[in-house]
Structure to design on (120 residues):
């Protein structure tokens, strides 16, 4: 009787505790934040693009100037600050970064950083 009671009691304890084990939540979708800058000749452009889970795209232009290495560096700093501001804003809404990809194509100087986020 004791040999049957102990395994049965342990099995029952495991089964009841498993029912209360927290389930992993499925992500509701992914969001992308893309920071991009292009410096070609006398033309420069920088922007932060957000693609939400429904596919809606919003673009925020960022001040970008070229002409000297100092101006390009300042423009990239402003771009990264805008990316960070947007990422912090999305973190407050419950999003977290799951992947980051950076790409540089030269010449012309084209820089892109893509952040993939999922809902927590």
């Amino acid at each position: 009787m004791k040999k049957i009671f102990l395994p049965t009691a342990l099995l029952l304890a495991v089964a009841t505790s498993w029912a209360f084990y927290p389930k992993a939540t499925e992500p509701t979708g992914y969001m992308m934040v893309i920071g991009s800058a292009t410096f070609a000749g006398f033309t420069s452009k920088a922007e932060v693009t957000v693609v939400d889970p429904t596919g809606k795209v919003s673009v925020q232009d960022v001040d970008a100037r070229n002409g000297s290495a100092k101006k390009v560096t300042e423009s990239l700093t402003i771009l990264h600050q805008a990316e960070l501001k947007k990422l912090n804003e999305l973190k407050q809404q419950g999003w977290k970064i799951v992947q980051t990809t950076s790409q540089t194509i030269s010449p012309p100087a084209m820089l892109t950083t893509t952040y993939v986020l999922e809902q927590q």
